[in-house]
Backbone:
């Protein structure tokens, strides 16, 4: 049973990352490390996973997939990979078509809804600076701001944004503010 104040990642997020984006890409060592944590990535996902398990599982993944990259860049690439690889599935292609129809601006405005379908703790606030420039505040990054940076970059690119650029402006505790821009 989940406590009302417990931060959790929903099973669909787990499924999207481990059974779609990373299918067949993790080493035996990484798969064993995840299994020791109680994460059985070849089985149907549970309804939710505590954030306290989700974060260390991503540490294992980035170290396995991107061993030669600085941790920040590895997390950014994982965020991008999550979006691009999921968009290659049947469901993902449908979501990609919707994203393209919405365009980058409206997609960005819907991203808080998407984050809320992934977990019960991430909230995103937008401040429009110009039609193709926003300040984006994400309240909880679990200490992985570049992961969310990669997700936003890839989502904008998938929605047709030309030259999307996501720059971290400030980090306060576990929240992060980004400047998001693209060419129209």
Residues:
């Amino acid at each position: 049973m989940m406590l009302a104040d417990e931060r959790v990642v929903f099973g669909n997020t787990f499924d999207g990352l481990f059974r779609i984006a990373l299918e067949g890409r993790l080493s035996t060592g990484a798969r064993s490390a995840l299994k020791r944590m109680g994460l059985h990535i070849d089985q149907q996902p549970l309804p939710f996973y505590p954030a306290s398990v989700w974060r260390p599982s991503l540490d294992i993944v980035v170290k396995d997939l991107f061993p030669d990259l600085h941790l920040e860049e590895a997390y950014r690439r994982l965020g991008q990979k999550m979006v691009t690889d999921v968009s290659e599935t049947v469901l993902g292609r449908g979501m990609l078509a919707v994203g393209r129809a919405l365009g980058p601006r409206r997609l960005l405005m819907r991203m808080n809804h998407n984050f809320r379908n992934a977990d019960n703790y991430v909230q995103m606030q937008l401040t429009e600076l110009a039609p193709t420039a926003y300040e984006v505040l994400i309240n909880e990054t679990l200490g992985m701001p570049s992961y969310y940076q990669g997700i936003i970059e890839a989502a904008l690119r998938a929605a047709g944004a030309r030259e999307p650029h996501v720059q971290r402006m400030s980090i306060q505790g576990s929240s992060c503010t980004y400047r998001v821009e693209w060419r129209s």
